[in-house]
Specification:
With 527 residues, this protein is of the alpha+beta class. It has helices at residues 73-99, 102-124, 129-150, 174-179, 184-193, 198-205, 222-235, 253-266, 313-316, 322-348, 365-371, 412-420, 422-426, 450-460, 466-470, 479-488, 492-506, 519-526, and strands at 11-12, 23-24, 40-42, 47-49, 271-276, 303-310, 353-356, 375-377, 383-385, 392-399, 439-440, 443-444. Strands 5-6-10-7 form a four-stranded antiparallel sheet, with helices on both faces. Strands 1-2 form a two-stranded antiparallel ribbon. Strands 3-4 form a two-stranded antiparallel ribbon. A hairpin with a 5-residue loop joins strand 8 and strand 9 (383-385).
Length: 527
């Protein structure tokens, strides 16, 4: 029998919007029933009346009047959405604690606390109409988000045609031009080739070298660490070419590729890709080394193995101090070590191989990495790795061995870089363009003002890395960030939402360090 069918006299408390505190029914009373609550729909008012029903004969002695919470279906679903949001915000706060990002911890924890308060209000006072309205707002926003997550659409990336592309001359690289002050004869030859660049080069030549005294962030402990790393790297250069392949071929194809993956990962690589080289992947002429300056580089079609090593994002966020130069040099050595190990292994398997490492490249690492499906060239002109963003270093091994090519479409990063612009807005030298993708060498591609960038490096005494530190992709590979990376590849609207979230939680403006951290401070950050 339904409660409202019982012929009793009842005392019922109505919601405040009815304007009265209660009423009495006019029927006879049954002494065994003292109180009840009924769910009824008053159609003419369009309201739901929530009433409690309790049979005194079924209650334990002294229990008194009790109240049972009954949530309407819309409040129940909204409460579930809030609970999911609360868990996500707590996970974000935990990730931010691991990242040592105080702002992110504070904002994530504050939003989690607000979500918890609203959730408790839903559970404790479900009869208030204001919460019913808020529930529908939450449900509407959740529905829109679900639709956005289901929508997979990205504007087509109009890839530039590579027909007629001019190969890049390494003599035009700022590192090569900076070294010419030690080689007056080569400097005069260069100034005849490019007289428009002579003035800026002369200004750079009088600035302190990277890691030398006189620069803003020179440090007696950190700067020599970078110098030591590059010195060790330089002494390893003869091994790049002084090797002979074994007379008999060993592993081939997929087996060889799997062995290379294992070897690279065991020595610290986080990714490895393979592609076939094209003419534009090679420099046209050597420039970094005086003995190779101006020598034409043969463009061969062979296999390129691209090796990715990650820099520690916690150290890079100390930009632009000498700490980032220490970290960058450390990973150049790591990348070179792995490349030389891979090349040596290939020679032992009977294949010719050459390692391309810092200051001894014949190939351009970034376009090769993109061709191998490891990521996409971003606004700052370097590779945006699919997981670690720009916080990486690359090395390459070219070989005659036939290997299965790797692939991956990360063109969605192109649209992300187009709308983000954080690197450009935070660049202290204004070397990164905040407009459309420029063109040079007969094709459209992201590039920077290398003269402005390198001039700042020399004045700072480090390789800056503010652009890398400010990039939204420079995050640890945690569950929360993996979820965001999955979402932003769906459509541009989710990319914009993610950028708004990154601005809110991590901030729009990167806070550059004004002085070097001490070694014990770096130890603490990395512990």
């Amino acid at each position: 029998m339904r409660p409202w069918d019982i012929p009793t006299t009842s005392s019922v408390t109505l919601p405040a919007q009815f304007g009265v505190s209660g009423f009495k029914s006019g029927h006879g009373i049954g002494s065994d029933v003292t109180d009840f609550v009924v769910f009824r729909k008053i159609q003419e008012e369009g309201l739901q009346l929530s009433l409690l029903c309790h049979d005194s004969s079924r209650q334990p002695a002294g229990a008194g009047n009790s109240r049972r919470i009954v949530l309407p279906i819309d409040l129940m679903i909204a409460a579930g959405v809030l609970f999911f949001l609360l868990c996500l915000l707590l996970a974000m706060a935990g990730t931010a604690v691991a990242e040592r990002e105080r702002r992110a911890v504070l904002i994530s924890a504050s939003l989690a606390f607000i979500s918890l308060l609203i959730l408790l209000a839903f559970l404790l006072r479900p009869e208030l109409l204001v919460f019913r309205g808020l529930a529908w707002v939450i449900l509407t926003l959740a529905g829109i988000l679900v639709l956005l997550l289901l929508l997979k659409w990205m504007p087509a990336d109009e890839r530039a045609s590579m027909e007629g592309v001019e190969r890049f001359d390494e003599r035009d690289h700022m590192f090569a031009r900076a070294e010419l002050k030690y080689h007056p004869k080569l400097l005069r030859s260069w100034e005849k080739m490019s007289p428009e660049k002579a003035e800026i080069d002369r200004k750079i030549h009088v600035l302190p070298e990277l890691g030398e005294q006189g620069s803003r962030f020179f440090d007696e402990a950190l700067s020599p660490m970078a110098a030591a790393a590059f010195s060790v790297l330089e002494r390893s250069y003869p091994a790049l070419v002084d090797r002979c392949p074994a007379s008999m071929k060993g592993l081939e194809g997929e087996e060889l590729f799997e062995a290379l993956q294992l070897l690279a990962s065991r020595y610290g690589a986080v990714d490895l890709g393979v592609t076939r080289t094209r003419p534009w992947h090679y420099y046209s002429h050597g420039g970094r080394q005086a003995e190779e300056w101006g020598r034409e580089i043969e463009a061969r079609e062979e296999t390129a193995i691209v090796i990715v090593v990650p820099m520690d994002f916690r150290t890079i966020r100390l930009a632009p101090t000498a700490a980032v130069l220490m970290e960058s040099s450390r990973m150049y050595v790591e990348a070179a070590t792995i490349a030389q190990m891979v090349a040596e292994f290939l020679c032992l398997q009977g294949y010719e191989a050459r390692a391309h490492v810092d200051a001894r490249y014949q190939v351009l690492c970034v376009p090769l990495a993109e061709a191998a499906g490891l990521g996409h060239v971003g606004r700052m002109g370097i590779l945006m790795h699919r997981i670690y963003g720009p916080c990486i270093r690359l090395s390459v091994v070219t070989t005659e061995a036939e290997l299965p090519e790797t692939s991956g479409d990360y063109s969605w990063m192109e649209n992300f870089c187009r709308i983000c612009k954080k690197c450009a807005k935070n660049c202290p030298s204004r070397a990164i363009l905040d407009g459309q993708r420029p063109s040079s060498r007969n094709f459209s591609h992201w590039s920077i003002d290398q003269e402005s960038c390198y001039s700042f490096w020399r004045r700072a005494g480090s390789d800056c890395s503010v652009c890398i530190a400010s990039c939204p992709f420079t995050k640890p590979d945690s569950a929360v960030h993996r979820l965001v990376r999955w979402a932003i590849r769906r459509n541009p609207l989710l990319q914009r939402l993610a950028l708004l979230g990154d601005d809110l939680v991590y901030g729009k403006k990167f806070r550059m360090r004004s002085k070097n951290p001490r070694p014990n401070e770096i130890h603490k950050i990395l512990s």
